[in-house]
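Lecture 7 notes: from sequence to structure.
We start with the chain below.
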Amino acid sequence: MNPIFSALQTSVFEVMSRLANEHRAVNLGQGFPDDPGPEDVRRKAADAVMGGWNQYPPMMGLPELRKATATHFKHWQGLDLDPDAEVMVTSGATEAIAGALMALVSPGDEVVLFEPMYDAYVPLVRRAGGIPKFVTLKPPHFGLSEEALAQAFSPKTRVVLFNNPLNPTATIFSDADLDLLADFCVRHDAVAICDEVWEHVVFDGHRHRPLMNRPGMRERTVKISSAGKIFSLTGWKVGMVMAAPELMRVLAKAHQYITFTTPPNLQAAVAYGLGKEDGYFEGMRADFQRSRDRFAKGLTELGYSVLPSKGTYFLNVDIAPLGESDDVAWCQRLVTGNGVAAIPVSAFYAEGAVRNVVRFCFAKHDATLDSALERLEAARKG
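Predicted C-alpha cells for the same chain:
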C-alpha cells in the first residue's frame, strides 16, 4: 500500500461526527449548512436530468458553464477570462487542487503551504512528489510576514498553495498580505494554486480580492472556485478552474485522467446560478452574517473568547482563557459530556503548532445554534 495514505490517521471530522452520532450531540463540527440550498438552482438540476443531456459532457466542461464562469468573475472580481482557453470544470475543488498539484509539481519540488490548512493538502502534495514547506500562522489575526515567507521560499519552490478566505480561521488576507505573497511568487518564479472556494461567503462589506489580480500574478495563478460553497450545496462537487492558457493546457491533461467529466445536469444548474442577480449573493451573505453574529453574541455572553470571523461558515474560540491547552481533549469532553461537536484547530496544523483554538460551524438554523449555546453554557459552568 502507498505509505502516504496507509499511514494517515482517521480524519478528525470522521472521529467527531462519529462521537456526535453516538452521543446525540449538536454537530457544529462538519462545515455544511442546514438549509437545502436555493430552490431554483436545485430545480434547474432536476429539470436538466429529465429533459437534458445525460451522456458524457465535454471534458473541459459545458460551454454554457465556462462562459457563465468567465462572466461571473468579470462582474464580481474584475477578471478578464477567455472561457474557451482559461476556464475548466472539475468534479469539485478538491479534484481541482489534486489535479493542479499533479500537473505542476515534479518530484523534489518544494510547495509552500500555510497552516492551519485543509487536511487534504499535505497528502496530495506528497503524492505528487512535492516537499511541503510550512508557513505557520498564529491567532488571533493569522496574517503573513516577510520573515516567515523568506524562511519557506527557496530556489526549489515551484508551487504555493494558498487558501483565501482561510478555513478554519475565517480569515480574509489583507491587501498588504496579498501584495507580499505575490512579490515572493514573482521573485521565485512560483505558481500559486489559489483555493478560493469561500470567496462569496464574506461578511461586513468585504469583497473578495483574488491573488490572480495582483501585479505579476495573471500568468502564474491557478484560481479554484466551488459551486458547492457559492450555493451552499456542498454535496454537488462542481469546481471551476481558471488559469492562463499555458497552465490550463497541462491542468486539463491531469483532469482528463482523474475524473474526465462532471455531471452535466449539475453543470447546467451552476451555469444558471452564476447568472443570478447580485441580490441573491448579497442576501446569502447577510443570512450567514446574521447567524455568525447570533452565535458569537451567545458565546461571548457565556464568557467564551471569540476570535474574529470575516468569512466562511466558521467561528473560532480561544480556550486558553478557560485554562485549557489541549483542544483535542477539550472537544472530546465537550461532545461526550455536553453534547456539542466542534473541531480542534490543531488538526489543521502539520504538527499541532496551535492547541488552544476550537472551530464551530454557525451555518445552522437558529434552533440548532440555540440548543448548542444551552449545552455550551452547561460546559462553561462545569
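Points to note: Residues 39-276 form a domain with the Aspartate Aminotransferase; domain 2 fold (CATH 3.40.640.10). The longest strand covers residues 157-163.
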